[in-house]
């Protein structure tokens, strides 16, 4: 079995590849090759029995995407995206990477034709929703994004469902909660601080909190995200019917609750490294984001979420220790 | 004031132009020119004081659309589309005309830049919704289309809202109910029979009814559609916020109720010309279409619907008489 991963060099992509290597198979079929593609080639550890082809290119280039699909991967994970802050700042780049890239991928699959109908797992986002909201966003609530990033994700979901309905692909779009705690450095996503206020103080650094403590948000751990991807790759998709986009289950927490969990796990000294510095631009973007979901379809389809925020922090600490080792 | 109409040769486009000519102005501003564009040049009657430029071309061609926008029309009506049945049969053509055409239009407007920010009225469709439905579809129900046509319209709505939010255009997407009674010949739309079973018997011809009498549908008259377009072109759009797509008000009627109204207006002899001939393909498409709406936002925004189906039939008879005269 051959697997293609677009956006392989990112945090979720690398974790996904590690999980696939550790497992060595999917649905009883041995994984023989993983094509790991990103805008920069991912430097990946070797993997027993699995050929890893790490390559770089631009998914907005149609020929590049066609060449990747020509290898006929049975499963494709499309994780590549320009993040929300950057897509808002650079309108053209956001549409080129986030929309044209997906369209090229779907077209390359369709034009392969014959019996080729890969499972395509696409990471969408809760940014497809925009306020005003229901108290809990249900599975039949409209997509009315308030960012170009959210618009691009919502359009990709519609394309994925239509190409699936026509029988060209077997698609599942999973709307990820904000992933917390992201390791590494802050990125250009407007949501970057949700991880920053946990990760940076734990590492001994100051972290800026640009929004109010009462802001509520919908989060999932990196491990939960990888679990969603693997389940989406192997689940029975018939139960989804023609609605191939699913809001993933998550945890609804306030900033105050996140900080309280950090205090519980790491103590007051660590919490003291959070500095409050309101940022009107980020506050405005975050105010348009969802806070809570009734993710019933995904739960019924077997997707499972984190149970509490303190466990997410402890898992992050364990990951960092393993990385340091 | 200059007005651009894409899809000017269609039934709604021609009626819109007639209404604009009869009025001669919009919001107190004299209409000086109407650029009437379609895939074939519309043969339009002259219009006192208004220059009508009737041209033909392909909206999937970017340069063609750029040339139309270069005239800097203050109001643009985008009515051009491949209809549902044809977009389902020809996947590539549907995306090219219904999606690329809109994207070219939005890009041409954005790239004009400066203070240019025209009002863009886009005719979307209730085909953006797919079953299973709520009993009455509300303004916050998800777009989950079951046709490529509906998918293309839903994507255009998302693009229109995002380009509007970014300040490039002042867009309003109006989701038209099925227009009944369409004059002229049956077309390739799967919904064509909704008009056919009224129009053809009244003209002395047999009409085929491919679905069950209990099928319920959401309809509006041609006159109501033109009213929606004119209101969308002149309304205060601030009240719409960032959600620029609106389900238009309409009439929810069953086939049986339509036939009963035809009997009331035209008698049993006319009704007898309807021949029942079930068509599984059309039944399947129509089963995925909405039947009833709570079109609250549009009603609050001042859009008004037809009041009863017999009046729609009588208006059609009067229109046909005027056309014959």
Automatic annotation (TrEMBL), chains A, B:
Recorded hits in InterPro entries, A to Z, give: DenD, Epimerase_deHydtase, NAD(P)-bd_dom_sf
Q: Record's Pfam families?
A: Epimerase
| Alphabetical keyword list | Carbohydrate metabolism, NADP
For this protein, the record's SUPFAM superfamilies field holds:
NAD(P)-binding Rossmann-fold domains
Q: Tell me where in this chain the NAD-dependent epimerase/dehydratase domain is found.
A: 3-224
| Lipid biosynthesis in keyword set | no
Q: Name one GO molecular function term.
A: oxidoreductase activity
Q: Which PANTHER family does this entry report, sorted A to Z?
A: ADP-L-GLYCERO-D-MANNO-HEPTOSE-6-EPIMERASE (PTHR43103:SF3), NUCLEOSIDE-DIPHOSPHATE-SUGAR EPIMERASE (PTHR43103)
Protein name from the UniProt record: NAD-dependent epimerase/dehydratase family protein
Q: What organism is recorded for this protein?
A: Aurantimonas aggregata
């Amino acid at each position: 079995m051959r697997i293609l991963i677009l956006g392989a060099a990112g945090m979720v992509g690398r974790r996904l590849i590690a999980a696939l290597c550790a497992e060595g198979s999917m649905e009883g079929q041995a994984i023989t090759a993983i094509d790991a593609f990103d805008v920069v080639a991912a430097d990946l550890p070797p993997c027993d029995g699995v050929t890893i082809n790490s390559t770089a290119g631009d998914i907005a280039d149609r020929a590049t995407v066609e060449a990747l699909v020509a290898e006929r991967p049975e499963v494709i994970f499309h994780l590549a995206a320009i993040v929300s802050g950057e897509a808002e700042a650079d309108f053209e780049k956001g549409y080129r990477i986030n929309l044209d890239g997906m369209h090229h991928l779907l077209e390359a699959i369709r034009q392969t034709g014959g019996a080729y109908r890969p499972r395509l797992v696409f990471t969408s986002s809760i940014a497809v929703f925009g306020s005003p909201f229901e108290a809990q966003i249900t599975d039949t609530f409209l997509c009315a994004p308030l960012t170009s990033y959210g618009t691009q994700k919502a359009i990709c979901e519609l394309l994925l469902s239509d190409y699936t309905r026509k029988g060209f692909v077997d698609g599942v779009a999973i709307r990820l909660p904000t992933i917390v705690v992201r390791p590494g450095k802050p990125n250009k996503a407007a949501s970057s601080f949700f991880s920053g206020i946990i990760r940076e103080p734990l590492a001994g650094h100051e972290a800026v909190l640009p929004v109010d403590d009462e802001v509520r948000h919908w989060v999932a751990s990196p491990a939960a995200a990888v679990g969603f991807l693997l389940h989406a790759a192997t689940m029975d998709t018939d139960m989804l019917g023609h609605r191939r986009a699913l809001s993933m289950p998550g945890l609804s927490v306030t900033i105050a609750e996140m900080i309280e969990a950090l205090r519980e796990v790491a103590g007051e000294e660590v919490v003291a490294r959070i500095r409050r510095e309101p940022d009107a631009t980020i506050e405005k973007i975050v105010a348009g984001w969802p806070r809570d979901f009734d993710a019933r379809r995904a739960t019924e389809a077997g997707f499972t979420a984190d149970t509490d925020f303190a466990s997410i922090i402890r898992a992050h600490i364990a990951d960092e220790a393993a990385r340091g080792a």
